[in-house]
Design a protein that fits this description.
The complex is a heterodimer of chains A (198) and B (137). Chain A is built from 9 helices and no strands. Chain A has 198 residues and is mainly α. Classes of the chains: A mainly alpha (198), B mainly alpha (137).
């Protein structure tokens, strides 16, 4: 009897740790956008990077950062919330592994020596703290981040600002940007990855 | 009180990003390999509901709290900034496996290497600010 209870409990826990399917996640992201619209704001996560530059004093160097960051405090609170959400979800709601298409996982393993698909949330080969001493890994993380920050500001938005907010409002600039996101991503994965990881 | 609401919205968003695995490098890689419908489903369904909702807001002229106008101002029309900026962003998205929202989520989840990615993103934003006048827009 005790055993049954235990296995039932285990099943329930498994249910909690299961990833949310796309048809749950997508509508909840739309809900996030509507909540912010209702609050009189816009959903966009990359503008925070500019705000943080301003807070750090970048306005003294360049006028692009001469903004009244206090007006953006609400968005910094959204960031802080995202950090808390990540903490909460990883601690209590997830077993912190991601199962992807086995063929893709196999290909990652054979071609790029990335074996951690299925056993971790991020590839440990790139994100394990002890690998930060590897200049190749360090350069890769900085470069990836740099292109995200530079590109998002150049394009006036990121995935949330253009692919969700902008396209929901049927804006042509957002469509151009989102096509750019995908072409850039495909170019990186199919053309540059074989060169970078060879 | 208002700040608590934003904190709550952010927390909700963070949980959704983590639980849907949209914050996972593996899922982004899989998307660009066309290995699963998952990411396309997330973005696609968010967008479908987004389009319907925004249309309703516009047709019914719905207002935000305190009778404010909804923030739905069109973006300035231009080509180069969206195309080139988009391409660079997409390359970074695939390489780092994270866009600006999930970066913060991963920091909260304790993946400390993501702080290097965030530092890179801040640097990229700063360099864009400096070069802005010289870039085609």
């Amino acid at each position: 009897m005790k055993q049954t209870n235990n296995s039932l409990k285990y099943k329930n826990l498994n249910f909690i740790y299961q990833p949310w399917p796309w048809y749950v996640a997508g509508p909840l992201i739309a809900l996030t956008m509507f909540a912010l619209l209702f609050m009189g704001k816009q959903f966009g996560m990359s503008s925070n990077l500019r705000t943080m530059c301003t807070v750090a004093g970048a306005g003294k160097v360049n006028s692009f950062f001469n903004i009244d960051w206090k007006k953006e405090r609400w968005n910094l609170m959204v960031v802080l919330g995202s950090v808390l959400g990540g903490f909460f979800a990883s601690q209590f709601l997830s077993d912190n592994t991601v199962q992807i298409n086995p063929e893709v996982a196999n290909q990652l393993s054979q071609e790029y020596n990335i074996h951690s698909a299925g056993s971790s949330y991020l590839p440990t080969e790139l994100f394990a703290v002890e690998n930060l001493s590897d200049p190749f890994v360090l350069a890769l993380l900085i470069l990836g981040g740099f292109m995200v920050g530079f590109g998002a500001r150049y394009a006036g938005g990121c995935t949330s600002g253009h692919a969700i907010s902008g396209l929901s409002n049927l804006q042509l600039p957002s469509l151009i940007a989102v096509i750019g996101f995908f072409v850039g991503g495909l170019f990186m994965v199919h053309i540059l990855f074989p060169l970078i990881f060879s | 009180m208002k700040y608590a609401t934003y904190l709550l919205i952010g927390t909700f968003f963070g949980i959704v990003m983590y639980k849907s695995e949209a914050a996972s490098w593996f899922r982004i890689y899989e998307m660009f390999q066309f290995g699963s419908f998952h990411m396309y489903g997330i973005i696609g369904s968010a967008l479908a509901i987004g389009i319907v909702g925004v249309q309703i807001i516009k047709r019914k002229n719905l207002k935000a709290i305190n009778r404010q106008e909804m923030q739905l101002t069109p973006k300035k029309t231009s080509f180069f900034r969206y195309a080139i900026g988009g391409l660079i962003f997409g390359m970074g998205w695939a390489l780092a496996g994270a866009c600006p929202g999930p970066m913060y989520v991963l920091a909260g989840a304790g993946y400390f290497s993501i702080l290097i990615v965030i530092a890179g993103a801040l640097l990229g934003t700063f360099v864009y600010g400096i070069l802005r006048e010289k870039l085609p827009h």
